[in-house]
Amino acid sequence: MSATPSLYTGSIRIIDVEDAHVAHNYHPLPVVIAKGEGVWVTDVEGKRYLDLLSAYSALNFGHGHPALLAAATEQLGRLTLTSRAYHNDRLGVFAAALAKLCGKDLVLPMNTGAEAVETGIKVARAWAYRVKGVTPDAATVVVANGNFHGRTTTIVGFSDDPQARDDFGPYAAGFVSVPFGDAAAIEAAITPDTAAVLLEPIQGEGGVVIPPVGYLRAVREICDRHNVLFIADEIQSGLGRVGETFACDREGVVPDLYLLGKALGGGILPVSAVVGNADVLGVIRPGEHGSTFGGNPLAAAVGLRVVEMLDTGEFQRRASALGEHLEAKLDELVGHGVTTVRIAGLWAGVDIDPAYGTGREIAEKLLARGVLVKDTHGQTIRIAPPLVIRATELDWAVEQLKLVLAD
Ligand SMILES: *Cc1c(COP(=O)(O)O)cnc(C)c1O
User: Fold this and answer.
1) Fewer beta carbons within 10 angstroms: which end of the chain, N or C?
2) pLDDT by residue (tens digit) across 6-26?
3) Residue 166 falls in the annotated catalytic set
4) Tens of pLDDT along 297-343?
5) Is CATH 3.90.1150.10 the classification given to domain 318-381+393-407?
6) Ligand 1: distance of its center to the CA of 57 in Å?
């Protein structure tokens, strides 16, 4: 054996090598994962952990779901990439299934979530000029304070998180930010030049912030009244996480455009999409927008299987029932190290009492006990396990949190 492999033995060395050669755009918890199955991952030393983050909901179906692996493996051996210069035999089938799941006609396939958001913004602007008749280059998009829509230069320009935004200007014009959960503030921000309202129905990175009941319905109604598009960023909230297919379903609301990503790739590869009707998404003409990898046959094969799995309703039902179970368990911790619990389906934001430590400290202590979570905004930990988790596993995880807080 050469000397090189020694560099890669032991998690400390692996972390050192990563630190030396990977730009420090993240601050990972000190665990080196080598294997995953369902809700469990194993580190390089053989220690097992329950994954309560699911790669920010990209792993809604867990690690290595057999049906998704089968779809990917079959497609890997047949055809992986054509570019959109040609047709491939998977994209149309995937798009038809995804459009049907969304109750819409058209799908514009991309790869990452940020690309879906950028695409949604472009579509909204083109619609504003070509359909609504907004003055050229004057279109605006209303967004919400505390938003997270990705990391491109345009998107970070309308973030109010200094870590995401500072030192990356100049920022793109045409965005107006209003308080999240306040429908009247949206209406007040709308002018004749407004193309769209872009919102997360539940703010994920913000700490699982759930707007007041009726907010999404009010936004829908305001958008209709002012001829403005409602774009729902369901990249993290959608595809079963909240106990429904989409978080908008909680209020029976249908946006003009769904932005999807994360779980759409089955935890295997990045797959994102904008889904809407022809009167909106149809404004994009050949040559105006695209992506080399968007709509590739491997992504389409995996995405199709994801849609088929969601069509059964099983994952939505699991998220709903297990979410109620989790809520009851977490509520018992309020006043014992936890100040607030916000929960929708199997997606919880748990605010830690500062007297018990920061979110990061709690996440590190949970790690030592075999539970993976991620802190956000200082005092919050986010719990978003794969939807295939069992109630007994949730109980065990909450017990570990209870023990950490009792320390
Ligand atoms: C993660 C996320 C994005 C960005 O997705 P990437 O695939 O990381 O580019 C956009 N919107 C929301 C709501 C997200 O949670």
Assistant:
1) N
2) 445 678 889 999 999 999 999
3) no
4) 999 999 999 999 999 999 999 999 999 999 999 999 999 999 999 99
5) yes
6) 10
Q: Is the CB of 309 under 6 A from ligand 1?
A: no
Report helix, strand or coil for 141: strand
CATH (residue range 66-311): 3.40.640.10
**Band of the pLDDT at 272, cuts 50, 70, 90?**
very high
**Quick one: which H or E segment has residue 348?**
strand 348-352
Supply the mean pLDDT for the chain. 96
Question: Could you give the CA distance from residue 383 to residue 322 in angstroms, rounded to a whole number?
Answer: 12
| Whether residue 133 has pLDDT greater than 70 | yes
Residue whose entry in the numeric block shows the structure tokens 């089968």: 70
- Answer for the pair 248, 255: CB distance below 8 angstroms, yes or no: yes
Within the chain, which residue ranges are assigned CATH 3.40.640.10? 66-311
Q: Tokens 């986010």 sit at which residue?
A: 382
Atom of ligand 1 nearest to the CA of 262: 7
State residue 407's pLDDT score: 86
Does the active-site annotation cover 233? yes
Closest ligand 1 atom number to CA of residue 155: 10
Which residue ranges does the chain devote to CATH 3.90.1150.10?
Answer: 318-381+393-407
Q: Measuring from atom 8 of ligand 1, which residue has the nearest CA? A: 113
pLDDT at residue number 5: 43
Q: Is 262 a catalytic residue?
A: yes
Whose CA is closest to atom 6 on ligand 1?
113
Atom of ligand 1 nearest to the CA of 117: 10
DSSP 171: P
| 205 alpha carbon – ligand 1 mean position (Å) | 9
**What whole-number distance in Å separates Cα of residue 175 and Cα of residue 31?**
39
